[in-house]
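Continuing the batch. This is chain 6 of the set; chains 1 through 5 are on the previous pages. Same settings as before, nothing changed between runs. Recording input and output for traceability.
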Amino acid sequence: MIEVTEAVEQAVIDTREWIENIATSEQGTSGSGLGWIIRNSHGTFMECGMSKFQGRAPVEESECTALIWALQSSWNLGYIKIEFDGDNLSIIRLINGKAVNPRLRHYLDEISHWHCMFTEVKFTFHHREQNKCADILARQALTGPIHYT
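Output for chain 6:
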């Protein structure tokens, strides 16, 4: 029987595709909440995280910040093939080169830098209803204390 730590290590280094849902939540001027969940291609939960940053940022900047954080976290956890599902179509279009927004150039450059760290990366759009768990984490980051991210 494989011990739990060995099973987790094996899952992290596995080259199958992983899917990561990302979300942000805004609450007036109090800041933005970020949430992400990594699951395998069968939908099984693997990892998650949430965070809050102070200050008011436009929705697009919050979404880019969440994606950068998710890219960094995924890479640090050892994932090399991953698909990022987000519920902001305009950001997904920007990342996939289907739109241009000079105001977000710095964020897009950072996303591009992290994109190169992976063997395979996809950025796909899913409606908010299909991204509920990551959205719950993002809202929780705003409303509750964060003891673990």
